[in-house]
Amino acid sequence: MRIHEVTLQEIRMKLVAPFETSMERTEARRILLVQVNVDGVTGWAECVAGESPYYSPEMIDTAWFIFRDFLWPLIKGKEFATANDVWDLLKRVRGHNMAKAALEAAVWDAEARQKGVPLAKLIGGVRQEIACGVSVGIKESLDELAAAVQKELAAGYQRVKIKIKPGKDLELVRRLRQDFPRIKLMVDANSAYTLKDWPLLKQLEGFYLMMIEQPLGWDDLYSHIELQKRLDTPICLDECIHSEEQARAAIELGACKIINIKLGRVGGHAVARRIHDLCQQHGIPVWCGGMVESGIGRAHNIALSTLPNFILPGDVSASKRYWEEDIIDPEVAVSPKGTIRVPTGPGIGFEPRLDRIDKLTVRKERLA
Fold first, then answer.
1. What is the pLDDT of residues 200-242, one digit of tens each?
2. Is 257 in the active site?
């Protein structure tokens, strides 16, 4: 296999409603789409780097630069046997996992299309449908939060995650447990707390949470070890895990009991599968987190979620939750029982809507 051409395309999409976390409030997304021509077959992926360096050091602008000036020169003209080999061709570049993941994932899509098989099958998936949870951002009032959760439960979602931050934590969870005593509920702090806040985090245990996601520093493994010793509720790590080595350290040192695997954060399907296998060997359940992706990124998340140890509902929700109109056909839909059917067509199983993508494009560059 050989990549003959890469096309980078930035599109801009307005969210149906603003999405607020402890880090920032997002009303529109700048999205970097990646097309690769692999021996005449086009593969698609999405770079999930954001507009700011608040979740990750990577941004869409840094990813574009790394693609053009470093990743493409490393892989241009190189022969490789399968998409699984792409990561090793790029390893000379340190970090920049989101840029690497987009290039690698696009090649996986192309290989699956070449072979006429679904991407989920090519990466070793075992499910025909995946269970879906939903991520609810920080709201202006408790009533608004409760109404938002009620709406998602009515849509069938099997698990609710709410974003929290200092000053907006205990009262949110208390209200939801009062209104919805039986739902599967978790919280996500996106690194908003420090170890000194452990007594407050301990109080959350009275509300029977599935997990507390990334409560402490984005690169602070040690403090999560100390916090997990003090909590019965499982800690789930997100931002701390961007390599197989970090996942191994977190598991063996007891920093968490659950891991959120995000394709972009760890560098693509090859590394995601290795982290998945490691967690499975140690009895650590995993789930797939979201990055407010368009349908193309969402399609890759669906495929990833079919691996056997993705036993918890992920943040892979319907297109309509985020976009008035998505850029794939068909759009991602969630069933009344809170599941998504895994597409059976070749590759990601959804077709990019080229006319809509072109309409939303603000810059484009071809690398050949």
1. 999 999 999 999 999 999 999 999 999 999 999 999 999 999 9
2. no
Active-site residue, 184 included: no
The CATH code for residues 3-116+351-367 is 3.30.390.10
Domain ranges of the chain: 3-116+351-367, 122-341
* Residue 325: per-residue pLDDT: 97
pLDDT level of residue 19 (50, 70, 90 thresholds) = confident
Let me know: does 252 contact 224? Beta carbons within 8 Å: no
Contact 51, 32 (CB under 8 A): no
The C-alpha angle with vertex 279 and arms to 83 and 21, in degrees rounded to 5, equals 85
Strands (E), the chain: 3-20, 25-38, 41-47, 129-131, 133-136, 159-163, 185-188, 212-213, 235-237, 258-261, 286-288, 328-329, 339-341, 351-352, 361-367
CATH number of the domain at 122-341, out of 3.10.180.10, 3.40.50.2300, 3.20.20.120, 2.120.10.30? Answer: 3.20.20.120
Query: What does the pLDDT average to over 147-157?
Result: 95
Closest listed residue to residue 292, CA positions, set 312, 262, 271: 262
Q: Spot the catalytic one: 161, 165, 257, 262.
A: 262
Topology alike, domains 3-116+351-367 and 122-341: no
**What are 200's two structure tokens?**
């407050």
364 near 7, Cβ under 8 Å? yes
Signed CA dihedral, 234, 239, 240, 245: sign only: positive
Q: Quick one: CA dihedral 19, 168, 49, 305, positive or negative?
A: negative
Which residue is catalytic, options 100, 139, 161, 163?
163
Reply yes or no on whether the pLDDT at 122 is more than 90: yes
The count of other CB atoms within 10 Å of the CB of residue 286 is 26
